[in-house]
């Protein structure tokens, strides 16, 4: 069932990407700022578990994590990237008059984890190897997929970049790559794919794990060939750009080694972990959280069959053991009776989405507005569960720990639902 839950998450990420909402403080008396009404303020608690997530689709991402991340409460993670290198215009631009001087692989980096101070230099150890089999454009790849890697290395060295808004890692590929282009009888774009196959790119851990988010749609992410075109005694300096990622078939592989409280997930062990004290949201095919308000929904709908929910928000208090670099957004999904997921209806309503978008509040909570979601649960009279996932789980290394559902274990600051209703 958990696999079916996770497969639904990827398709929803692009829908949320269009939303750019402002955070707001927890409302006094939980009053919706756009309406005025008299109502009864109430709270509800739930059961909750941390569930293992290992079936994310990673083919065709627009951004991807790359490198290593380590945290004692979660364990370690490694992300590697597999891609074809294709011609940018579906044609081959070289002939016997071309003499290649250099080939440079460039990656546009949008974030680094852990973050550095502005202007600080990061030394990143990249490794680029040739694949023995090209990624297929019509195949679906998951976070656990891989492809065989040969022994031909195109790059293995440290690249220094200065931390800031614009970060480009330039890697001059060695003669192993140049010779494949110069020596092979490449007559078409298909010939090049057949010869090059593709590459696996890694950002290695040299003692201080670092992870980067690579923007695969940025114009700076490319492979540039610098060459001279010599004919009739004339020499013209030119360059030709190949595409990597973006429109080229590509996918990412995530390897998570759970430790600490999550060690039970290692080796495909436990599927869930009781959330009495803590709940863990871990990106890159790590973990999600499942909440169950079934007991409350059944009792409340029986006692208040005509209740109208005016406002409801899910409060997710951040635990004291959580990393201080908070993920941007937590997304909520409704579990259907057949095990699939659908987004909570509040995400679709442009009039009620603002201010309750799952972002972090300065009071120490993540807040998700679920007014319509709760109303639908009460009408159904039961709850199949609500799954929480990190909005940027496919390309962001940040993670978070919430207080669990047990009020005695969390000094009363447990994950809970706050709502206003009338009858």
Question: What does this 3D model show about the protein?
Answer:
This protein is mainly β. The protein contains five helices and 25 strands. The radius of gyration is 25 Å and the shape is elongated.
Short description:
By secondary structure, the chain is mainly beta. The protein is 12% helix and 42% strand. It starts with a helix and ends with a strand.
Q: What attributes does this structure have?
A:
423 residues; mainly beta; 12-stranded antiparallel sheet; 6-stranded antiparallel sheet; 5 helices
Please render the helix and strand layout as text.
Layout (H helix, E strand, L loop, with lengths): L1 H15 L23 E5 L2 E6 L10 E9 L3 E9 L1 E3 L10 E16 L7 E11 L17 E14 L4 E7 L1 H9 L5 H8 L2 E5 L7 E5 L6 E10 L2 E11 L5 E9 L13 E3 L3 E4 L5 E6 L1 H10 L4 E10 L12 E6 L5 E3 L13 E5 L3 E5 L1 H10 L5 E5 L9 E4 L12 E7 L1
Antiparallel strand pairs: 1-25, 2-15, 2-17, 3-4, 3-11, 4-10, 4-14, 5-13, 6-9, 6-11, 6-12, 7-8, 7-10, 12-13, 16-24, 17-23, 18-22, 18-25, 19-20, 19-23, 21-22
Oligomer: single chain
Strand residue percentage: 35-45%
Question: Regions with pLDDT < 50 over 5+ consecutive residues?
Answer: 10-36
Order of helices and strands: HEEEEEEEEEHHEEEEEEEEHEEEEEHEEE
């Amino acid at each position: 069932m958990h696999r079916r839950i996770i497969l639904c998450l990827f398709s929803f990420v692009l829908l949320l990407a269009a939303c750019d909402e402002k955070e707001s403080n927890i409302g006094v008396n939980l009053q919706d700022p756009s309406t005025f009404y008299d109502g009864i303020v109430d709270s509800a608690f739930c059961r909750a578990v941390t569930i293992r997530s290992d079936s994310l689709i990673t083919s065709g991402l627009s951004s991807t994590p790359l490198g290593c991340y380590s945290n004692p409460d979660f364990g370690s993670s490694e992300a590697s990237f597999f891609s074809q290198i294709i011609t940018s215009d579906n044609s081959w631009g070289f002939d016997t008059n071309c003499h290649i001087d250099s080939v440079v692989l460039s990656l546009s980096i949008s974030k680094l984890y852990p973050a550095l101070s502005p202007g600080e230099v990061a030394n990143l150890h990249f490794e680029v190897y040739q694949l023995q089999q090209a990624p297929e454009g019509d195949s679906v790849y998951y976070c656990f997929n891989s492809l065989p890697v040969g022994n031909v290395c195109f790059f293995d060295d440290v690249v220094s970049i200065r931390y800031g808004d614009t970060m480009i890692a330039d890697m001059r590929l060695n003669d192993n790559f140049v010779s494949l282009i110069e020596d092979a009888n490449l007559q078409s774009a298909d010939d090049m794919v057949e010869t090059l196959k593709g590459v696996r790119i890694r950002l290695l851990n040299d003692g201080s794990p670092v992870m980067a988010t690579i923007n695969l749609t940025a114009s700076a992410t490319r492979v540039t060939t610098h060459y001279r075109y010599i004919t009739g005694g004339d020499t013209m300096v030119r360059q030709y750009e190949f595409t990597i990622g973006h429109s080229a078939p590509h996918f990412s592989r995530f390897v998570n080694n759970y430790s600490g409280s999550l060690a039970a997930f290692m080796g495909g062990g436990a599927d869930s972990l009781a959330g009495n004290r803590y709940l863990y949201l871990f990106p890159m095919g790590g973990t999600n959280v499942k909440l169950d308000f079934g007991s409350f929904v059944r009792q409340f709908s029986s006692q208040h069959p005509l209740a109208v929910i005016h406002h409801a928000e899910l409060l997710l208090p951040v635990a004291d053991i959580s990393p201080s670099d908070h993920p941007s957004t937590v997304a909520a999904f409704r579990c259907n009776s057949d095990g699939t997921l659908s987004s909570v209806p509040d995400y679709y309503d442009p009039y009620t989405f603002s201010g309750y978008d799952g972002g972090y509040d300065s009071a120490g909570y993540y807040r998700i507005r679920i007014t319509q979601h709760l109303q639908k649960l009460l009408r159904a009279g039961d709850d199949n569960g609500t799954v929480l996932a990190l909005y940027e789980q496919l390309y962001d290394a940040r993670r978070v720990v919430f207080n669990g559902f047990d009020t005695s274990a969390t000094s009363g600051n447990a994950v809970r639902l706050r709502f206003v209703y009338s009858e």
